[in-house]
Recover the amino acids of this structure.
C-alpha cells in the first residue's frame, strides 16, 4: 500500500511539474507572439480550405493595419523629437490621416470578419526603436527616409489589392486609399528634399 501511495504521489508531482512548465511556456509564447502573426493565423483558421481568395484578401488588410499603426506611432515621435517644422508637420499629418484610415480599416475588417493586428507589430516596434535612438538631423533624415520608403511600398500593395483582390469591396477600399497614400508620398519626398538640403 505504501508503495502505491508513493508511486501515486510521484506521478502527481511529475504531472504538476509538467503542467507548470507547459503553462509557463504558453505564457512566454503568447507574450512574444507578433500581433501580425496572430491576425494572420486567425485568418488562416477562418478561411483556410473554405475560401483561399478571402485568405489572400485578408493579407491586404493586415498589411494596411500594420502600416497605419506604425505611421501613427512614428508620426507622434516626429512631433515630439524633431525641431524641424517640416518634419513636425509631416508627422502631424501622418498621425491624423492614418488614424482616420485605421478607423475605416477596422470597420471594413469587422464587416468582412477579417482579423487585423491589435497592436503595433514587431516590425513596427523595431522601426520605432531604431528612430527613437536617433536625434537632431539624423532623426529628421531617418524619419523622412522611412516615410518615403514606407509609402512607396504601401502604394504598390494597394495598387495590387485594387486590381487583384477577389472581394469587390476590398478592391474599392484599396483604390480609395491610393490618392491619400500618393499625397503622403509627395509630402514625404518634399520633406526629405528639405531635410537633405540642411547641412
Amino acid at each position: 500500500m505504501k508503495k502505491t501511495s508513493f508511486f501515486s504521489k510521484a506521478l502527481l508531482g511529475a504531472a504538476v511539474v509538467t503542467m507548470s512548465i507547459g503553462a509557463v511556456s504558453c505564457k512566454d509564447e503568447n507574450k512574444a507572439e507578433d500581433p501580425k502573426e496572430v491576425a494572420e493565423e486567425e485568418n488562416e483558421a477562418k478561411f483556410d480550405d473554405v475560401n483561399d481568395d478571402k485568405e489572400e484578401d485578408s493579407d491586404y488588410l493586415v498589411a494596411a493595419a500594420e502600416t497605419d499603426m506604425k505611421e501613427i506611432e512614428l508620426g507622434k515621435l516626429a512631433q515630439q523629437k524633431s525641431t524641424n517644422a517640416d518634419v513636425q508637420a509631416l508627422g502631424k499629418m501622418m498621425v491624423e490621416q492614418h488614424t482616420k484610415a485605421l478607423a475605416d480599416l477596422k470597420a471594413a475588417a469587422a464587416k468582412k470578419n477579417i482579423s487585423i493586428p491589435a497592436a503595433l507589430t514587431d516590425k513596427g516596434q523595431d522601426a520605432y526603436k531604431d528612430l527613437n535612438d536617433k536625434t537632431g538631423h539624423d532623426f529628421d533624415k531617418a524619419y523622412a527616409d522611412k516615410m518615403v520608403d514606407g509609402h512607396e511600398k504601401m502604394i504598390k500593395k494597394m495598387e495590387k489589392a485594387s486590381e487583384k483582390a477577389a472581394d469587390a469591396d476590398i478592391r474599392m477600399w484599396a483604390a480609395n486609399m491610393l490618392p491619400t497614400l500618393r499625397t503622403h508620398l509627395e509630402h514625404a519626398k518634399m520633406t526629405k528634399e528639405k531635410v537633405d538640403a540642411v547641412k
Summary: The chain has a mean pLDDT of 84. The chain has two domains: 1-32, 35-197. The domain at 35-197 is CATH 1.20.1260.10 (Ferritin). Helices lie at 2-32, 35-47, 52-81, 85-111, 122-132, 136-164, 168-197.
